[in-house]
Amino acid sequence: MKLSQVFLRDERTVRKIVEAVDPKEGETFVEVGPGLGVITFPLVKAGARVVAVEIDTFLCMALRRKGIDAVCGDYLKTDVAALLRERGITDRVRFFSSVPYHITHDLLLKVFGERPLYRDIHLILQKEVAERLVAKERTKAYGPFTVLTRTLFTPRLLFNVPRTAFSPVPKVHSALIRLVPREDRLGIDALRFLKFLKVPFGRRRKKLKNTLKGVPPDLAHRRPEEVSPETWLDLFLKAEGNRL
User: Rounded to two decimals, what is the model's pTM?
Assistant: First the structure.
């Protein structure tokens, strides 16, 4: 598989995804990794405008020949705000990506940082990654990205996508997740917040009094997975000296 590509092939799954995304006439989508355009073309058919970023030059040019506004390049190195400005797009847009597994971490960090650009974000992720983003406290899956996601977004895991929906068939199942940015938290630096969280979560068995300075007495004896996302956000803001 060039660039570790897998392509959505199952028509029923494609219809289910498009129905969940629910594109409307006049909306604009940024789509990362459109591949063969199986989601792109239904979005356009619904009347939406799509700005597609595709790293595979052959696929990118093929989409261009079919009338898609395709940008040939690496999303991780792309200034999306500049792309939108160049096209005269000033309103917030929507985001969709069937995320290549090998860039999941980097893509999440980038799209989290870009969230002021987006009304909502739909991602097809490896199933266990999607589950981690919406995990509950006191579970193994609950970690730094859980806290980041649940504080900066209203997240919802919509449904699982079987691995047989893709070609070549990957080894793992996927899931479609929706993230709606929290309007009152657009100013929070996602990268700094994640860096803050990684210190205590990197020593999960330790109590907070042993991993963080200035922890309130009521939290001193708790472990990272026992602390709610809202409390983590409060701890981060106090550490930063900022308020919402």
Answer: 0.94
